[in-house]
Design brief:
By secondary structure, this protein is mostly helical. The protein has two domains: 2-87, Rna Polymerase Sigma Factor, Chain: A, CATH 1.10.1740; 106-190, Orthogonal Bundle (Arc Repressor Mutant, subunit A). Helices cover 74% and strands 0% of the residues. It is built from nine helices and no strands. It has helices at residues 2-13, 16-39, 42-59, 69-87, 106-124, 128-138, 144-151, 155-173, 180-190. Helix 6 crosses helix 8. The longest helix is centred in the N-terminal third of the chain and has 24 residues, at 16-39.
């Protein structure tokens, strides 16, 4: 695994334009989506994504050898996001991906809209450290070790933050009882 990280780091930071473009293509959309979930604003998400890549390329040799380039990029992005939060105390609601792809009828659409709104509010109200850990694990599928590297904490604390966020969300969203298809995704993330 360490050889893979070293190869990835070398490819992403040193091997020229083609490797840099490949790295951006493989990480841009997912990083943008993470920022969009955190910031709730497409323009802010785009700015943070661009700033993260610029700072990543500028960091060059400062990347720790024990983390992948992807993890290092997210750690840089997290720091930029946190710096923005210090300067601004407003929180824009998160936009969730379309929760239901089928169209079973107007009653279901109303319920889906209510659930989306409640879920958006529940995630917005999580403390920022829990919100980061939850979004990194649930939507971006980072390992606890990667979340730990991004947040500058231990893997055990990363796991605790994820489960604490999940517990709070379960309590807030209990009236909607999301159903078995949601539980399968949660079970996959619990491992």
């Amino acid at each position: 695994m360490d050889d893979q990280r070293a190869d990835e780091r070398t490819d992403a930071t040193e091997n020229g334009q083609a490797s840099r473009e490949a790295f951006v293509r493989s990480t841009y959309v997912e990083l943008y989506r993470w920022f969009h979930r955190l910031a709730g604003c497409p323009a802010r998400a785009a700015d943070l994504t661009q700033e993260s890549f610029a700072a990543f390329w500028a960091s060059g040799a400062r990347q720790p050898t024990e983390v992948s380039s992807r993890t290092w990029l997210y750690a840089i992005g997290r720091n930029l996001w946190r710096n923005q939060l210090r300067g601004r105390r407003e929180f824009v609601p998160l936009e969730f991906d379309q929760a239901f792809s089928s169209d079973p009828g107007p009653e279901h659409r109303v319920e889906a809209g209510e659930f989306e709104s409640a879920a958006r509010d529940a995630v917005d109200q999580l403390p920022i450290d829990l919100r980061e850990a939850f979004t990194l694990r649930f939507w971006n599928e980072f390992s606890y070790e990667e979340i730990a590297a991004i947040q500058g904490i231990s893997a055990d604390l990363a796991r605790w933050r994820y489960f604490a966020a999940r517990k709070r969300l379960h309590a807030r969203l209990a009236p909607w009882n999301p159903g078995p298809e949601h539980s399968e995704k949660e079970d996959r993330h619990a491992r």
